[in-house]
């Protein structure tokens, strides 16, 4: 196996240590980092730090680098745009890349209905604007999200997010008229229920929620991640998603798919909604759309998107030329390099590997995912979340040259968001590093079947 990761110094190394000292003096403590070092350069699925250490990237800048770091097509597009103009403000003087990207997103999004597209900067902005649009169109105020959801860190999106620490604690009061419905979590379902019974139960829970918590005729939108991201990469049953969409249709509620992390080949489709055979009324997008440049958007039914009046939507940097050009290059790369198919191959490899390893390591409680959006849940006896062991595995893997992140409301999930351009050698080496990390931290744990 070719050696791709290479750690030459202690972590942090001498140069990174100097930068950490400077960071300590100037950056707020609330800004966290996954690993205590600093990037110097990055290509594909590899990152080199300031001390010359090379890491395989299984984090993808939290799912923003599906086409890899510094893809040649993206760099070429950005250089070309910088040479022409950097920013005019679309609401001052318009530019063609905004129109071209909007047209392509509308064509790719599920549904044959006429669509319009609003471009913004960040995922949180996209969600905020989806809520504004839904409220304007329906004339209603209530917004429903789900337990374990993550939608952002602004006031509105923080209110929509489910995890209290570190995202909400001490930052209230929160935006009103936001309600959180139960969301299926198959690994933690009642043991007496089979999967079908559990899905039926969760659908009934959603119907009960509309009786007990918020009247449907007051709800502007139900906002759902097709696969929950920060909540732990939780994949709902297809029939649950379809039932929620059907209930929304019955009550004139807009169904909003938050595809910020799931979009653009991550799950093996351009949009994860396609796996569930639902057509959202609005779709929020960002992250890997821009390959590292700030760009986001709301894609929606034409009549819904046109509900807001002139000047009510927009922003100074919204849909910047640089972001638009990067996004157009990303869409070309996904098609030309077959990244949707590649995502399916990567995901199958990951799930096969950890399903096998679960026979050896009793703390691998669940292996789950969709396409290349995968996770393993680390637990103790009785499925008790083991946050400490999860942290130890992450740190050990990082020390061996793998960028890896945790997730989950219990902090006990390891998630995989490697660039889809990762080579087979890099993928295999990264998986081997995790396996070795698990062996080291579990030296005192008995494997399954050993008394």
Features:
451 residues, alpha/beta, Aspartate Aminotransferase, domain 2, seven-stranded mixed sheet, four-stranded mixed sheet, 15 strands, 37% helix, globular
Short recap of the structure:
The chain contains 13 helices and 15 strands. It has helices at 14-26, 60-63, 72-84, 96-108, 123-138, 155-160, 195-212, 238-251, 302-305, 321-336, 339-357, 387-399, 424-441; strands at 39-43, 46-49, 54-57, 115-120, 142-146, 178-181, 219-224, 254-258, 282-285, 296-301, 364-370, 373-378, 402-403, 405-407, 413-416.
Task: Describe this protein's structure.
With 451 residues, this protein is an alpha/beta fold. It has a domain at 72-336: Aspartate Aminotransferase, domain 2, CATH 3.40.640. Helix content is 37%, strand content 16%. It is built from 13 helices and 15 strands. The strands form three sheets. A seven-stranded mixed beta sheet has the order 4-10-9-8-7-5-6, sandwiched between helices. Strands 1-2-3-13 form a four-stranded mixed beta sheet. Strands 11-12-15-14 form a four-stranded antiparallel beta sheet. The longest helix has 19 residues, at 339-357. It is globular and about 60 Å long. The two termini are 35 Å apart.
* Percentage of residues in DSSP E strands: 15-25%
Structural class: alpha/beta
Helix count from the secondary structure assignment: 13
How much helix, percentage-wise, in residues? 25-40%
Rg: 22 Å
The main pleated sheet reads as:
7 strands, mixed
Query: What is the 3D form?
Result: globular
Kindly report the average pLDDT value: 96
CATH C-level class of the domain at 72-336 is Alpha Beta
CATH architecture descriptor text of the domain at 72-336: 3-Layer(aba) Sandwich
Poorly predicted runs of 5 or more residues: none
Write the CATH fold name of the domain at 72-336: Aspartate Aminotransferase, domain 2
**Order of SSEs, N→C?**
HEEEHHHEHEHEHEHEEEHHHEEHEEEH
Strand order of the largest sheet: 4-10-9-8-7-5-6
The CATH superfamily of the domain at 72-336 is known as Type I PLP-dependent aspartate aminotransferase-like (Major domain)
Number of strands: 15
Termini separation comes to: 35 Å
EC number: 2.6.1.19, 2.6.1.22
Catalytic activity: 4-aminobutanoate + 2-oxoglutarate = succinate semialdehyde + L-glutamate; (S)-3-amino-2-methylpropanoate + 2-oxoglutarate = 2-methyl-3-oxopropanoate + L-glutamate
GO molecular function, one term: (S)-3-amino-2-methylpropionate transaminase activity
Family: Belongs to the class-III pyridoxal-phosphate-dependent aminotransferase family.
């Amino acid at each position: 196996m070719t050696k791709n990761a290479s750690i030459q110094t202690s972590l942090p190394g001498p140069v990174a240590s100097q930068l950490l000292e400077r960071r300590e003096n100037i950056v707020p403590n609330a800004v966290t980092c996954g690993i205590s070092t600093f990037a110097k350069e990055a290509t594909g699925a590899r990152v080199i730090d300031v001390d010359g250490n090379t890491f395989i990237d299984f984090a993808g800048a939290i799912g923003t680098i599906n086409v890899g770091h510094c893809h040649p097509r993206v760099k070429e597009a950005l250089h070309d745009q910088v040479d022409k103009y950097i920013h005019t403000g679309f609401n001052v003087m318009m530019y063609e890349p905004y129109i071209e990207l909007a047209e392509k997103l509308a064509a790719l999004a599920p549904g044959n209905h006429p669509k319009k597209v609003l471009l913004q900067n960040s995922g949180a902005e996209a969600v905020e604007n989806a809520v504004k649009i839904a409220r304007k169109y329906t004339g209603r105020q209530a917004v429903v999200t789900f337990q374990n959801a993550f939608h952002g860190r602004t006031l509105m999106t923080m209110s929509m997010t489910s995890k209290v620490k570190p995202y909400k604690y001490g930052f209230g009061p929160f935006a009103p008229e936001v309600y959180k419905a139960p969301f299926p979590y198959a690994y933690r379902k009642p043991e007496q229920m089979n999967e079908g019974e559990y899905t039926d139960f969760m659908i009934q829970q959603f119907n009960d929620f509309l009786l007990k918590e918020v009247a449907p005729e007051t709800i502007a939108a139900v906002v759902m991640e097709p696969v929950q991201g920060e909540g732990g990469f939780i994949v709902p049953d297809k029939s649950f998603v379809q039932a929620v969409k059907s209930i929304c249709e019955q009550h004139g509620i807009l169904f909003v798919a938050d595809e910020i992390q799931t979009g653009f080949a991550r799950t093996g489709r351009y949009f994860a909604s396609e796996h569930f055979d639902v057509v959202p009324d609005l779709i929020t997008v960002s992250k890997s759309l821009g390959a590292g440049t700030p760009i986001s958007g709301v894609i929606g039914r034409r009549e819904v998107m046109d509900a807001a009046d002139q000047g009510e939507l927009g922003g100074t940097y919204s849909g910047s030329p640089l972001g638009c050009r990067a996004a157009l290059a990303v869409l070309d790369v996904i098609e030309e390099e077959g990244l949707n198919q590649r995502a399916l191959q990567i995901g199958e490899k990951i799930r096969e590997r950890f399903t096998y390893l679960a026979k050896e390591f009793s703390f691998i409680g669940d292996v789950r995912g969709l396409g290349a959006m995968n996770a393993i849940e680390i637990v103790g006896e009785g499925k008790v979340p083991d946050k400490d062991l999860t942290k130890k595995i992450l740190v050990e893997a990082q020390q061996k040259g793998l960028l890896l992140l945790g997730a989950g409301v219990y902090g006990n999930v390891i998630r995989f968001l490697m660039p889809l351009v990762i080579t087979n050698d890099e993928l295999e080496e990264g998986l081997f590093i995790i396996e070795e990390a698990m062996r080291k931290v579990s030296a005192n744990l008995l494997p399954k079947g050993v008394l």
